[in-house]
Design brief:
Layout lengths: L14 E7 L16 H4 L3 H4 E2 L3 H6 L1 E4 L2 E4 L11 H18 L6 H6 L7 E6 L5 H9 L3 E7 L7 E3 L15 E5 L15 H15 L6 H11 L3 E12 L9 H23 L1 H6 L4 H17 L5 E11 L3
Parallel strand pairs: 1-8, 5-6, 5-8, 6-7
Antiparallel strand pairs: 1-10, 2-7, 3-4, 9-10
Helix pairs in contact: 4-9, 7-11, 9-11
The structure holds S-adenosylmethionine.
Length: 319
């Protein structure tokens, strides 16, 4: 479901966009279970905005299974360390090339610079901040704000958006979220690919943590049936999971180029998923078996796999 307590009728929030991979990437964490108490931060916007320092960033982490996990949520168990930020930076470049930077008509919404009207854009779950930094660069008249569980290299707010967004009401014109969550949809049987089996295992682990692994698959339905939005735009892309396409025509070559980028992204994501899998008590040798099989399959590049990436854009209904 959309973040709890997010009020789409809020007069100052006129754009809502999400991108999500529905067969992989970060499993969902749609839950309010967290180590941060809502009352502690509900009205705390100004104090929670700060410039990054090394010690602030170091305190935001705990180290588990060789990776840095955020200290603020027991549920989001993917790393938010330098290695993960590097993966997200590369993924951002891949998405921009295939999907474009802004889902139409977001660029026009952001470009609108009506004199006397200020425009503010928030990126929920900003990760490395690549997208929101592009907004700041491309639309200098827009105030760009980044929100994440962990402080980023840029001016950012540390917040768990699952706890509610009331303290943001009235603050933003444009809301963006990308890949905070995703689900896995592949029916799993004996013949499933090794990647699909790994994704399934990760989905089970997310459920066990109290998360919701199918959020990505529900985005369009949630936004469309919510009643508060209009101009809903849905787009999707099937990425190859490796450069397995034997074709030599320009389309196949392009698909293979993106497949190679996606393969590298998934290879890196297999490592990111270790704290999640091990932290839910799956024995290490089983985690290793799943991971090794998926890695072999990706590097062989023969299995004709695809991964779905979806993008939903909508704007608040104008009365
Ligand atoms: C897969 S990354 C996506 C990063 C970025 N949006 C992008 O597209 O490159 C997910 C990010 O969402 C953050 N996140 C996950 N759950 C969150 C929550 N409940 N509140 C705030 N941030 C959250 C994580 O810390 C992580 O940086």
């Amino acid at each position: 479901m959309p973040p709890p307590n997010f009020d789409p009728n809020d007069d100052d929030s006129d754009t809502w966009s999400m991108k999500s991979g529905s067969t992989g990437f970060a499993p969902s964490v749609a839950t309010s279970a967290t180590t941060v108490d809502w009352e502690m931060r509900s009205a705390s916007r100004p104090p929670s905005v700060f410039s990054m320092t090394n010690s602030l960033r170091a305190n935001a982490y705990r180290h588990e299974y060789g990776r840095g996990l955020n200290n603020y949520s027991e549920v989001y168990r993917l790393p938010a360390d330098e290695e993960e930020l590097d993966r997200l930076d590369k993924q951002h470049i891949m998405f921009m090339e295939v999907m474009g930077k802004y889902p139409p008509p977001m660029a026009e919404v952001l470009a609108d610079d009506t004199p006397g009207e200020s425009k503010t854009c928030v990126d929920l779950g900003c990760g490395s901040g690549s997208w929101i930094l592009d907004v700041a660069h491309d639309f200098p008249h827009v105030s760009a704000v980044a929100v994440d569980l962990v402080p980023m290299q840029v001016l950012s707010e540390v917040d768990d958006i699952n706890l509610g967004l009331q303290h943001f009401y009235g603050d933003f014109n444009v809301v963006h979220a990308r890949l905070i969550s995703s689900g896995e949809t592949i029916p799993i049987d004996q013949n499933a690919s090794a990647i699909a089996k790994w994704m399934h295992l990760a989905g089970q682990a997310v459920k066990q943590q109290g998360g919701e692994p199918d959020a990505a698959n529900h985005l369009l339905e949630w936004i469309s049936t919510q009643g508060a939005f209009e101009d809903v735009v849905y787009r999707h892309w099937w990425f190859q999971t490796s450069p397995w396409n034997p074709g030599q025509d320009p389309d196949s070559r392009r698909a293979n180029r993106h497949g190679a980028l996606m393969r590298d992204d998934i290879l890196s994501f297999l490592k990111s998923g270790r704290p999640l899998l091990l932290g839910t008590g799956i024995p290490e040798h089983i985690v290793n078996d799943y991971e090794d099989a998926a890695r072999r399959e990706l590097l062989e590049g023969k299995a004709p796999g695809f991964i779905l990436v979806e993008n939903v854009y909508a704007r608040r209904k104008r009365s």
